[in-house]
Corrinoid adenosyltransferase
Amino acid sequence: MRIYTRTGDEGKTGVIGGRVDKDDIRVEAYGTIDELNAFVGEAIARMNPEKHADMIRDLTEIQHELFDAGGDLAQVGKKRQYKLTADLVNRLEEWIDRYMAETPEIQRFILPGGSPVSAALHLCRVLARRAERRVVTLCREQETNDEVRRYLNRLSDFFFAIARAANVRDGVSDVEYKRGGQVFR
C-alpha cells in the first residue's frame, strides 16, 4: 500500500465532508492536536512500566481521545455524531484530583521540568494550551464540537497534575518560580 496520494500537492487536504486549504484554521486546530498526541507518545516512552503503569494507561486513553477530537474537528458540512463528550471532561477532573492528591501543596508557580518524565508532560501541557487556542479560533469562526475546546482546557490542567505526580514518583522536587511571591494559599 502506498502512503502517498499526491492529492495534497496543490495545497488542499481532505476533511470529512470535503476539501479545504491545508492552512485552514480547521486543519491547523486538528493538526496541533496531532502534534500533542505525538508528544504524549513520547512522554509514555519515557515512563517506567511499573512505577508509571496507571499514568501510561491514562495517557494511552488520552491518545485515543485526541484522535477522536481530531476526527470531530475534521467534519465540515453534514455532521456525524461527535465522539468527544462532556463525560470525558468530567473524567479528566477526577483524574486531576487523583494525581494532585499525590503531590505536596503548591504555593508558588512551578517551572516546567524536574524529572525527564515530568518535563515531557509539561511539553504536553503547553501543546494542549496551543491546541486549545487554535480550537477557540475555530469555534469562533466555524461550526464544530465545542466539547473539544472544554476537553483541551481541562487536559492542560491534567498534564500539570500528572507532571507533578511524576516528579513525586521519580523522587524529584518541583522547581518553584522564586522571583514571584506565594500565589497559592
About this structure: Residues 20-176 form a domain with the Hypothetical Protein Ta1238; Chain: A; fold (CATH 1.20.1200.10). The two ends are 58 Å apart (CA to CA).
